[in-house]
Design goal:
This protein has 379 residues and is α/β, with parallel strands linked by helices. The chain has helices spanning 3-17, 32-40, 43-46, 60-63, 66-77, 104-109, 120-129, 143-155, 171-179, 192-198, 204-208, 221-237, 256-265, 295-298, 302-305, 324-328, 360-366; strands at 25-29, 51-55, 82-86, 113-117, 135-141, 161-167, 187-191, 214-217, 242-245, 266-273, 277-286. Helix 1 runs parallel beside helix 12, helix 2 (32-40) packs parallel to helix 17 (360-366) and helix 8 packs across helix 13.
Length: 379
């Protein structure tokens, strides 16, 4: 961080400490990237004690349905496809007996052709280099990573490339929390990258329907502290508005090209979030004109075929004892999960929140938090 950014961050921190607020206030930061910046820069310890920063549902790996990961594994193991996926998906465990491969990386060790990629263009290149093979791109992510998948479809893809899409929209999970009547937070800091794609106005519902302060933030301490100050001032003054504290890249209307490509290639549908359940209109699926490239339609449904498998009795759920879904929803802190730091560590993850760099459990562990505690954030 530059000297100017450091000085600006200190100035925002000084303004926050200068606020005359006495009661505890809870701010949810939706984005996993925000949580990483908050934890690694030590912002929680620098803020006044009345402020609670609560990690929210901003980790796509954490909410990717368990059955989608299982399907990807079986396509690689049984159908012998080349399975490509973003690297942080490879270590997420599924619910099978311990003597069977429990993740894509274990399927790879068992002989499956599983390859990590960093962008959709790599999936296209691998398909072009292997025209005699079926290549399945397991595409999990929020709007930011789903938009390049839409671009890939719009540009045209090889006949042997198929998409197993597990894309999710970010805002419906927050809307679900607010509609529940017990959201557990008083203000929202909205994700900068998603707002860059979809536009900041996607978060106006927080203000208009639920009357909570909201601010879009970037990923530097300076931007995050500006957003914290904004929502705290709103809470103090009684004002309610959506503030854009990431104006360098977030603009009204978002990225029009990305939005057009999403609308042209994908439909929005009700979708399952691991450990949480179905959230209305929170997922993406390929439009009918791309059916020949939809892996769900072109390959056997291995989840259905294995529905009577005794090791799949927890199909679709979190592993036994894993409280990752509660962490994702901001109901508990990462180190309040029953498995945190004991059975579940980055080296031996049990739940998805300990796998991804955007998972709150992994972030807290890498930030130095090791001890399990039993108190809860909210009832």
């Amino acid at each position: 961080m530059s000297d100017t950014s450091t000085d600006n961050a200190r100035a925002w921190l000084g303004k926050i400490h200068g606020l005359n607020i006495e009661k505890p206030l809870r701010i949810m930061n939706v984005c996993g990237g925000h949580e990483r910046s908050i934890t690694h820069s030590g912002l929680r310890g620098a803020l006044p004690g009345y402020i609670e920063l609560i990690p929210g549902p901003g980790c796509p790996v954490c909410v990717c349905p368990e059955e989608d990961i299982y399907q990807a594994m079986q396509l690689a193991l049984q159908d012998k496809v080349i399975l490509v996926a973003f690297g942080d998906m490879l270590r997420v465990p599924v619910n099978v007996p311990k003597n069977e491969p429990r993740s894509l990386v274990e399927a790879q060790a068992a002989g499956a052709d599983v390859r990590p990629i960093a962008s959709p263009t790599e999936a296209k290149l691998i398909a072009e280099q292997n025209p005699e093979r079926h290549v399945v791109f397991f595409a999990a992510g929020f709007e930011t990573t789903t938009a390049p998948v839409a671009a890939l479809l719009a540009e045209g893809i090889p006949d042997n490339l198929f998409i197993l899409l597990s894309g999710r929209l970010t805002w419906p999970a927050v809307d679900m929390l607010l509609d529940s009547g017990t959201p557990g937070f008083d203000a929202l800091v909205a994700p900068g990258h998603v707002s860059t794609i979809m536009g900041p106005e996607e978060w106006l519902f927080v203000v208009d329907r639920h009357h909570l302060p909201a601010a879009v933030a970037g990923f530097t301490p300076e931007s995050l502290l500006a957003a914290f100050y904004s929502v705290l001032r709103q809470l103090q003054s009684g004002e309610r508005f959506l503030d854009n504290c990431y104006p360098e890249v977030v603009h009204t209307g978002g990225n029009l090209t990305a939005i057009r490509l999403l609308n042209e290639t994908l439909d929005v549908v009700d979708a399952n979030w691991r450990g949480i359940g179905i959230i209305p209109r929170s997922g993406y699926t390929l439009k009918p004109q791309f059916a020949l490239h939809d892996a769900r339609l072109q390959f056997q449904d291995h989840n259905h075929a294995d529905s009577d498998h005794p090791g799949r009795r927890r199909a679709g759920q979190m592993p036994p004892g894993c409280d990752c879904a509660q962490v994702v929803l901001g109901k508990i802190y990462p180190n309040q999960c029953r498995l945190f730091g004991s059975a579940c560590t980055p080296r031996h993850p049990i739940g998805p929140c300990m796998v991804s760099d955007e998972g709150a459990c992994r972030i807290w562990w890498s930030g130095g938090v090791r001890e399990h505690v039993t108190a809860t954030v909210s009832e």
